[in-house]
Amino acid sequence: MPHTTFETALGPCAIAWNDDKITAFQLPDANLPGAPSPPPEFVQKIIDRVRQHLQGELQDFRDIPVDLTGSGEFAQKVLAATRAIPTGHTTTYAEMAKELQSPGAARAVGQALGKNPIPLLIPCHRILAAGGKSGGFSAPGGVATKSRLLQLEGAATNTPIQFEPFIAPVSPPPTNAAIQHPARRPP
Q: What pTM was computed for the model?
């Protein structure tokens, strides 16, 4: 299986391909077996987009052709539905199961996502546990990597994320009652 490793802002990643599709992707601390190959042009363009994404220039990877031949029928449905989740948005394992007309299959959704051969490009990090908790993440770095990706994409979870300390300048409180909390949107 031709593959290569490359540096990103998150650490070394790896990507594998066949003639015209991506077959595997690994997040930081990537280690695909065998000697790396020079990437063809279509793969190099994907590598460039991944680097941009991980540097904060968010990308939509839904147009990238992927080969999920080794995945079962239900897993392919889960992975296809996962690709439809836009950057900055999340859903839960249970909501995904309902979307797939299998309302009791939240664990099966999690198992399918745990075997995702192409994380990031198929954004399994956007699927959360009940209550917006992070849930699991089988890629290297585990939940910490998942949280970093969600933070990078501007998605909120109930998982505490470590931020750099920031001390805001003190200013008088606003007096305009029409000012709304930034997290709330008008109906």
A: 0.79
Which residues form the catalytic set?
Answer: 124
Q: So where are the chain's domains?
A: 3-54, 73-153
pLDDT tens per residue across span 124-178: 999 998 887 788 777 777 788 898 899 999 986 554 333 233 333 333 333 333 3
Average pLDDT over residues 66-85: 95
Amino acid at 141: G
| Strand order across the beta sheet in which 3-6 lies | 3-6, 13-17, 22-26
Beta strand 13-17 pairing with 3-6: antiparallel
Backbone angles phi, psi at 24, to 5 degrees: -160, 155
Structure tokens at 91: 């859903």
Query: Which CATH number among 1.10.10.10, 3.30.470.10, 3.40.50.150, 1.20.1560.10 corresponds to the domain 73-153?
Result: 1.10.10.10
Buried b (16+ CB within 10 A) or exposed e, 140-171: bbebebbbbbbebbebebebeeeeeeeeeeee
Residue 107 per-residue DSSP state: H
Phi, psi (deg, nearest 5) at residue 59: -120, 155
